[in-house]
Design a protein that fits this description.
8 helices, alpha+beta, 4 strands, about 55% helix, globular, about 10% strand, disordered N terminus
């Protein structure tokens, strides 16, 4: 159904291809001349930054993080005033902050290892006009890949 709504150039096609590319790179292993962590971030962009069909996106964005975690979604290590004030409760809240972090270049890696399990990716958010951090989240790159897979699978299940 989603494919019919969006056609060849729709974001769902781009997201599916991003996930296919991620799986390919993860499957070829660390000896190939590709970087799995880089591809994981590319997949994140493909599924999180690009817009989705509204009904499907609404279904995933309202999912509570605690429920997602109990269903096998990987946990994020989060801190900051947004966490302290309980403002990050849903996948939608997390996605908004991830988008802001990516758009403003607030993404760092603690290693250049080609093994995703050896790299922690950290995302930071600063409110508009402020130099003061209000949210920080870290996740190992292999768990970020799992997050991408869970996210895209949830949306796929919703629209099929």
């Amino acid at each position: 159904m989603l494919d019919l709504l969006q056609g060849r150039n729709g974001s769902s096609k781009f997201a599916r291809r991003s996930m296919k590319n991620l799986q390919f790179v993860l499957d070829v292993g660390p000896d190939a001349d590709v970087h799995p962590v880089t591809q994981t971030i590319s997949a994140l962009l493909g599924i999180v930054v690009f817009p989705w069909e509204k009904g499907a996106f609404h279904a995933v964005k309202t999912k509570h993080l605690a429920i997602a975690h109990s269903e096998g979604w990987p946990p994020w290590l989060m801190s900051g005033s947004r966490i302290d004030s309980n403002k990050v409760k849903t996948i939608g809240n997390l996605l908004e902050l991830l988008r802001n972090s990516v758009v403003h270049g607030n993404v760092t890696f603690d290693s250049d290892s080609k093994l995703p399990s050896e790299v922690t990716v950290t995302f930071e958010n600063y409110p508009k006009g402020s130099d003061e951090l209000d949210w920080k989240a870290s996740i190992r790159a292999d768990r970020l890949a799992l997050f991408c897979q869970k996210f895209s699978g949830y949306v796929e299940d919703f629209v099929e």
